[in-house]
Amino acid sequence: MKQTLWKAVNSFSRKERQGILVLLLLTGICVTAPDLWERCFPPSIEVYTADSLLLAEVVEFRNSLVPRRKVFPGDADSSLHSRRFPFDPNTIGATEWAALGLDKRVTGNIQRYLEKGGRFRRKEDLQKIYGLSAELYNELQPFIRISMQQHVRDTSWRKAQYKPYGLRKETQYERKITELEVNTADSVQWESLPGIGPVLAARIVKFRERLGGFYSIRQIGETYGLADSTFNKIQPYLRLRKVSLKKLDLNLTDEKSLAQHPYIRYKLARLIVLYRSNHGPFDRPEGLLGIPLVDDSIYRKIEHYIKTENSPL
């Protein structure tokens, strides 16, 4: 038996015997490694009883009943420790605003508003600042103190505007708001309206250019970022006397140009080009109703800005 085993071993070459030994060694390591790992790093086993599981479910249910609230600066669980103290929003600076819990973006909006001649005359005026949450305003509202003397100081600049002969020079703060032609007004004219700053003015002009002109004053209310309250405030000053719309030819305009129109966008532009390829050119603008995506309400918005090669301008 031993001679047979020895012959079997000698039948392998030296390299084959070395390979067999390495394979046996790796096999032994793989077998013993799990036991060694558990001995060196014993696992922590948590035993859950019926009572502990029931308690966990009760806690989870109670937590689900508590409404989640947003963490604001000054809250107990907030990393920002703000203070509450009486303040006049017309006079305090960036440091005081930061101490009250406002971030730099909102503080910058307040400072730009004051630099342009704006003033907080009532506590509620602070709510008009873009970016200031209603929750934070409710926290600050009891501490707002607007000094009446501030309004007197605001008019002190008028004394320097009088000419020697008693005539006063007109300034940008005294300009009366006049009627505004919505299809020709530039961004500077839009800024003269109440509640319209440089950003909103630029957006209105850009929206008008992308549309190809306004055919209704109500379209201005569709401008991104323009609140309904602000639109209602400026609407009495808006006039639409000149209507000259830029129209897109349904048969000649490519997909990219069609998609840039706010009322068409990419999905409808792709369908228009596909319909045109399969059915030929549109005979008239009403042919757009043949596309399943276009219903009567959508068509009524688009019809002012489309034409076909044979349709009148």
Characterize this entry briefly.
The protein is mainly alpha-helical.
Quickly list its features:
single chain, 313 residues, mainly alpha, DNA polymerase, domain 1, two-stranded parallel ribbon, 4 strands, 3% strand
Walk me through this protein's architecture.
- It contains 13 helices and 4 strands.
- The chain is mainly α and about 325 residues long.
- It has 3 domains: about 75-175, no CATH class; about 180-240, Orthogonal Bundle (DNA polymerase, domain 1); about 250-305, AF1531-like domain (DNA polymerase, domain 1), CATH 1.10.150.
- A two-stranded parallel ribbon has the order 1-2. A two-stranded parallel sheet has the order 3-4.
- Residues about 65-80 and about 150-175 have low confidence and may be disordered.
Computed Rg? 37 Å
Total domain units:
3
What is the N-to-C order of secondary-structure elements (H for helix, E for strand)?
HHHHHHHEHHHEEHHHE
Low-confidence stretches: 64-81, 150-175
**Structural class per helix/strand content?**
mainly alpha
Strand content: under 5%
Oligomer: single chain
- What is the strand tally? 4
Q: What is the number of helices?
A: 13
The mean pLDDT is 77
Helix content: 40-55%
Largest sheet, described in full? 2 strands, parallel
Instruction: Trace the largest sheet across and list its strands.
Output: 1-2
Globular, elongated, flat, extended or rod-shaped: what is the shape?
Answer: flat
N-to-C CA distance: 109 Å
What does the secondary structure layout of this molecule look like, with pairings?
Elements: H1 2-10, H2 14-40, H3 50-65, H4 94-100, H5 104-115, H6 134-140, H7 148-154, E1 180-181, H8 187-191, H9 198-211, H10 228-234, E2 238-239, E3 248-249, H11 255-259, H12 265-279, H13 296-302, E4 306-307
Parallel strand pairs: 1-2, 3-4
